[in-house]
Amino acid sequence: MDTKEKELEFLLSTLVNIDSGSYDYGGISRVIQTLAVSLKEIGFKTEISKTSETLNLVAKKYGTGQKTILLIGHADTVFERGTVLSRPYKIEDNKIFGPGIADMKAGLVTIIYTLKTLENIKFTNYKEFIVVIGGDEEIGSPTSKELYETEAANADACFVFEPGRVDGSLVSARKGVASFKLSFIGSASHAGESPEKGASAIKELAHKIIALEALNDIYTGVTVTIGVINGGTRSNIIPDKAEAEIDVRLPDLNTAYEVINKIKRITEEAVDSRVQIVLEGGLNRPPMIKTEDTESLLNNVRDAGSLLGMEIKDQSTGGASDGNFVAALGVPVLDGMGPTGGNYHRADEFIYRNSLLQKTKLMALSLYKLGLE
After folding, report:
1. Smallest Cα–Cα separation from 71: which of 60, 82, 81?
2. How many angstroms separate the CA atoms of 170 and 313, rounded?
3. What pLDDT score does 236 carry?
4. Terminus-to-terminus CA distance in the chain, angstroms?
5. What is the pLDDT at residue 242?
6. 344 burial class (0-12, 13-18, 19+ CB within 10 angstroms)?
7. pTM for the full model?
8. How do residues 145-173 score in pLDDT, each as one tens digit?
9. What SS3 class is residue 333?
10. What pLDDT was estimated at residue 2?
11. Which of 77, 92, 189, 209 has its CA at 20 to 30 Å from residue 69's CA atom?
């Protein structure tokens, strides 16, 4: 398989050098079409679903075995059109750089060449391989979420090809994510002549920021972040409008419901009764919990890694992925199956060059062993 390394890197450079930000329909289309062609070449039936916003790919192939395996990834990145022009795919020693290379163009290459490897050895000991590639993961998966859940319904296991951690660890658990928009509507007034007639939306927002920040708990792993605030028009006008965007990370479902209810209670009543508060949003991705079935799946990968001379570790992370949707249905999920890298969403995002082939070998052998169980 080592002779295929140049092929892997050629496909990777092709994908990385396509701008495919979440709102770049044309770029996402090119990535999806490229992957569809590669999957068709090894006998997959592909279907591309199109919406006005994006495209999603579902590809399926039947075998002769017992287990249905779901492989998922996403074609979109966080980078705007034109990024590739300023900093295209680049190799420096044992690192490869480029927009979205770790998150997660390299993971897409791993999916394709894992399946090509198994096709080359005529491996058919699986009931069905299902590949789902979403086009909108970086903005919450509004169109692809249903596809993941539908295809996961009969899956025995799921592998997600987000990047492996910098230390090589896989991801066996992820926090859930809730997202909220908090809007305040007060009354405007002249700040000098009649401030008493105004009801400050920004002042009310300030009260709620303090209360919401108090929900952070380092011991339980709950984080509440007010990441964006807006309000007011001029410094000499009591502001009648303000809003905030809130990100909440949650370790388990019970904690999620508890914290979300606290957020609702905090925001249901204003300190200044003249200000109206509107809370929108909720749980976007449920927590991905490590279960006994997850551990069993992880042991399979550890055994494969041992045969390849790789020590396989796992960890929990606060970042969410589309694997959260699948895990919530009771399907064992292992994430971080993409090549090892770092600096996600930054200009210096990278993968370790040698991990591209390593993770492809690991994944192919893991699926082979899984088919023998």
Report:
1. 60
2. 6
3. 96
4. 24
5. 98
6. middle
7. 0.90
8. 999 999 999 999 999 999 998 888 999 99
9. strand
10. 59
11. 77
Query: What tokens does 49 get?
Result: 């679903």
Residues of the chain below pLDDT 70: 1-3
**Is the CATH number 3.30.70.360 carried by domain 176-285?**
yes
* Residue ranges, CATH 3.40.630.10, the chain: 2-174+288-372
Strands (E), the chain: 45-50, 55-62, 68-74, 90-92, 95-97, 128-134, 157-160, 163-164, 170-174, 176-185, 189-190, 223-231, 237-238, 241-250, 276-285, 314-317, 333-334, 338-342, 350-352
> Comparing C-alpha atoms, which of 69, 52, 51 is closest to residue 60?
69
- Which phi and psi angles does 240 have, rounded to 5°? -100, -5
Looking at residue 253, its amino acid is L
Length of the chain: 373
Structure tokens belonging to residue 137: 């993961």
Cα distances from 18 to residues 35, 77, 84, 144, 255, in angstroms, run 13, 10, 7, 21, 40
The predicted-structure confidence for 68-118, as pLDDT tens digits, reads as follows: 999 999 999 999 999 999 999 999 999 999 999 999 999 999 999 999 999
